[in-house]
Design brief:
Number of helices: 6
Radius of gyration: 24 Å
Distance between the termini: 27 Å
Pfam families: DUF6069
Oligomer: single chain
Helix content: 40-55%
Structural class: alpha+beta
Organism: Dactylosporangium roseum
Strand content: 15-25%
Keywords: Membrane, Transmembrane, Transmembrane helix
Protein name: Integral membrane protein
Shape: elongated
Strand order of the largest sheet: 1-8-3-6
InterPro entries: DUF6069
Length: 238
C-alpha cells in the first residue's frame, strides 16, 4: 500500500506498469482523470474508488485548491483488495466506472445540465429586464437615444438580454469543458464584460434619466445570470 499526494493543480502521469493490478481510493480532496485524448474525465471525490488498467486514462490531476491524496493498493498487500475490487465492478456495471466511455458520458451530462440551467436563467433575465424597463417607462423614462431620435422598444430589451445571456452560457460551457477553475474564471470574465457594457450608455448622449435606467437594465440580467451560472459551475466541476 502506498499513498500518492497531489498538490493543488498538480498532474501525475499514469505509468501502466505501476497501475497494472492497482486499486486506488481517494482519501482526501478531489482527483480528476485525464483521458487518453487529453480531455478531462470524471472528477472523483473523497472515498471514491477506481482502477486504471485498460481504461486509457493517462494522468491524474488535482483540480482543486487543496492537496489531494490517493491510497493505492495492490493484490496481496491488503486483505480488503478483493472486496473493494468487487465494489468497483458493481460501480462499473451501473455506469459508475472511470473508463473513457463513462467519462465522456459524465462530461456530456454536465455540459447539457449547465446549458439547460442557463437557458432557464436566460428566460428569467429577459422577463426581469423587460419588467424593469416597463416600470422605468411608467415613471417617465422615455429611452430616447439622441443619435437618430429613436426610442428603444420594450421587446428590444428582451432580445438584447437574451442574446448576451446566451453568450454568457457559451462562455460558461466552454470554461467547464476546458478550464480547471471554471467558476472563478467565469465570474471574472462575466463581471469584466458587464463593466464594459456600461460604457455605451454613458456615451449615448441620452438624458440623465435614460442613461441611469440603461445602466440599471444592464445590471439586472447580470444579477440573474452570473450567480446562477457560477453556482452551477462550482457544483458541476466539483
Amino acid at each position: 500500500m502506498r499513498t500518492l499526494t497531489l498538490r493543488a493543480g498538480a498532474r501525475v502521469g499514469v505509468v501502466a506498469a505501476e497501475w497494472r493490478d492497482a486499486f486506488g481510493v481517494v482519501t482526501r480532496g478531489r482527483v480528476q482523470l485525464e483521458l487518453r485524448d487529453g480531455g478531462p474525465g470524471p472528477v472523483l471525490g473523497r472515498d471514491a474508488g477506481f482502477w486504471l488498467r485498460g481504461t486509457g486514462v493517462r494522468a491524474l490531476r488535482n483540480p482543486g485548491r487543496r492537496t489531494a491524496t490517493v491510497r493505492i493498493v495492490t493484490p496481496g498487500q491488503d486483505r480488503h483488495t478483493t472486496e473493494r475490487s468487487n465494489d468497483m465492478n458493481s460501480m462499473r456495471d451501473t455506469g459508475g466506472g472511470a473508463g473513457p466511455a463513462s467519462g465522456r458520458t459524465s462530461r456530456t451530462h454536465r455540459l447539457r445540465g449547465l446549458a439547460g440551467t442557463g437557458f432557464i436563467a436566460t428566460l428569467a433575465a429577459m422577463v426581469a429586464t423587460t419588467l424593469a424597463a416597463a416600470l422605468a417607462r411608467a415613471v417617465g423614462v422615455d429611452f430616447e437615444i439622441p443619435d437618430g431620435g429613436e426610442t428603444i422598444p420594450l421587446p428590444g430589451f428582451a432580445v438584447v438580454t437574451g442574446f448576451f445571456s446566451v453568450v454568457g452560457i457559451v462562455i460558461a460551457v466552454a470554461l467547464l469543458r476546458w478550464s480547471a477553475r471554471p467558476a472563478e474564471r467565469f465570474v471574472w470574465t462575466a463581471v469584466s464584460l458587464t463593466a464594459i457594457s456600461l460604457i455605451p450608455p454613458l456615451l449615448s448622449g441620452a438624458s440623465t434619466a435614460t442613461t441611469t435606467a440603461l445602466l440599471g437594465l444592464h445590471l439586472v440580467p447580470a444579477a440573474v445570470m452570473i450567480p446562477v451560472l457560477a453556482r452551477n459551475l462550482r457544483t458541476r466541476s466539483g
